[in-house]
Amino acid sequence: MQASSRRWWWYGVYLAVMLAFGVAVHAAGKRVDYSWRWERIPQYLISDDGTEMKAPFDGFVSIAADQKSLTLKELKGGRTQVLSGFDDLLVGDGDLVFQNDPLARKRGWVAGPLTIGLWMTLKISAIALLFSMLFGLIAGLGRVAKNPAVYGLATSYVELIRGTPLLVQIFIFYFFVGTVLKLSAFTAGVAALAVFTGAYVAEIIRAGIEAIPRGQMEAARSLGMSVPQAMRHVVLPQAFRKTLPPLAGQFINLIKDSSLVSVMALTDLTKAGREVVASTFSPFEVWFTVAAMYLLLTGTLSILVRRLEKKLAHD
Prior knowledge:
Blueprint: H1 3-31, E1 46-47, E2 51-54, E3 59-63, E4 69-74, E5 80-84, E6 88-89, E7 96-97, E8 102-106, E9 110-111, H2 113-143, H3 148-162, H4 166-181, H5 185-211, H6 214-222, H7 227-257, H8 269-280, H9 283-314
Antiparallel strand pairs: 1-9, 2-8, 3-4, 3-7, 4-5, 6-8
Helix pairs in contact: 2-3, 2-5, 2-8, 3-5, 4-5, 5-7, 6-7, 7-9, 8-9
């Protein structure tokens, strides 16, 4: 059998396995007598419900004669708020409304709760990734330092963080550190993920540095470079190339671990999924969609890292 024929044969094996997996999932759905309702999902990704304009404070509504604007007069105070540019009124003239009550609606397409949750997950993961690289680089350099104090502090950080569950650390950051420092839930969540991932990044960087032959440092020193200069210009660039695949894997784990911040009252993708399940009673469709959205993030990151690997390989 020629090489090209064998290659197509293995493509056929792959397609057969994927087809069998799909059939198995369908059979499982039939076995539990589940009624699939995928038509419910698109509205939670994007909808044409428009944007609601809500009351900024308690007060009485006064609607203009042309019904193109309304005035909200504060119930206890002298503030007034004029709203215009809406398409549909949701209140009547003289109505008493309270803060955050809907007053009017602007028509148009808006992001659904799952898309909003995806954006929150992306923001948390991206910011945590940047800080985890910073923490990991500092701790990784500390792990190979000859100074006992620096080495001890870096080692204590790595062992303490890697030896405790992420969920426990999130609770500590949210209820203790966040309360003491008056951090928002978003900041506390980012800090917990960055500190946790930074410990693993530190070990990856340490392994990368130690994989570089000692002769590289000695050669750089013989050229008149200081230790920091040699580390920055000679050792770290080579170590980065060697550690790129495990770093990519750790960053993918960071995206998946971000689902735990849902316990902090942050509406990330996982929490949005739970809320949609509660309103639709369609758990299978929702969780398959949530899984696909996580896969979209991690798959995109994997593609970017592979392209970076190829670029570095040709440099």
